[in-house]
């Protein structure tokens, strides 16, 4: 599932590739491609010029020379791809956009196998699309309030993993990077935030920022200029994971076998030796 680093990689790719292009024709090819909250049909984009991109957490948007933006959420498997003549056409195209900039043409498609992703035309409120206004800043956002986020977590009495995944406290962290951050900070995923010191919570937030920054950097270096891709869990960062998806493999730090537990309907991977639960 795409998390912040993957979404940011896609945003950077789009920013680089399609800014300045005009949308000649936009078509949705699946009844669920466009969210029901969209204020207009996709064809409203016809004739609009792309001026840039934005992101809040895992919400991504394309800004236009219009009083609205095109919002995209990649869901579980959403991808933006530039169609290439020498490559087979993607199998799950939900929407397509014919783009033009003077004599140059591009065919951008939104491909989504599992259809949890969506597109939507929305207005901006304080610089953010209406569907993303409840989403908190992520650690890379210049408006991210580090101390306030630590305080917010410390004031709750919830498991640290649950707090990390709560997009209204801090956005961007999904299951993979939550497990990695907790492993790096040596904190058990079930530790209660009220029982952790502010220093410990800070170290978890720092670890989450660090691991996501590394993933963004890798996404950037492996980025193919003409092929914007999000490969979710089996993506480019997989080789660098220390805990996530490594059940029964040795902890890279101490050699104990990584354990997997399930709570909150999600798997958590941790090292039982490095990440002891506070008793
Ligand atoms: Zn360990």
TrEMBL record:
Residue intervals of the Formamidopyrimidine-DNA glycosylase catalytic domain: 2-117
Keyword Lipoprotein: no
PANTHER family according to UniProt: FORMAMIDOPYRIMIDINE-DNA GLYCOSYLASE
Name by which UniProt lists this protein: Unannotated protein
Assembly mode: Monomer.
Gene3D superfamilies assigned: 1.10.8.50, MutM-like, N-terminal
Pfam families membership: Fapy_DNA_glyco, H2TH, zf-FPG_IleRS
Catalytic activity: 2'-deoxyribonucleotide-(2'-deoxyribose 5'-phosphate)-2'-deoxyribonucleotide-DNA = a 3'-end 2'-deoxyribonucleotide-(2,3-dehydro-2,3-deoxyribose 5'-phosphate)-DNA + a 5'-end 5'-phospho-2'-deoxyribonucleoside-DNA + H(+); Hydrolysis of DNA containing ring-opened 7-methylguanine residues, releasing 2,6-diamino-4-hydroxy-5-(N-methyl)formamidopyrimidine
NCBIfam families for this protein: fpg (TIGR00577), PRK01103.1 (NF002211)
Domain named FPG-type: residues: 242-276
GO BP, sorted A to Z: base-excision repair
Record SMART domains: Fapy_DNA_glyco, H2TH
GO molecular function: 8-oxo-7,8-dihydroguanine DNA N-glycosylase activity; class I DNA-(apurinic or apyrimidinic site) endonuclease activity; damaged DNA binding; zinc ion binding
Cofactor: Zn(2+)
Similarity comment: family membership: Belongs to the FPG family.
Protein species of origin: freshwater metagenome
Assigned keywords, A-Z: DNA damage, DNA repair, DNA-binding, Glycosidase, Hydrolase, Lyase, Metal-binding, Multifunctional enzyme, Zinc, Zinc-finger
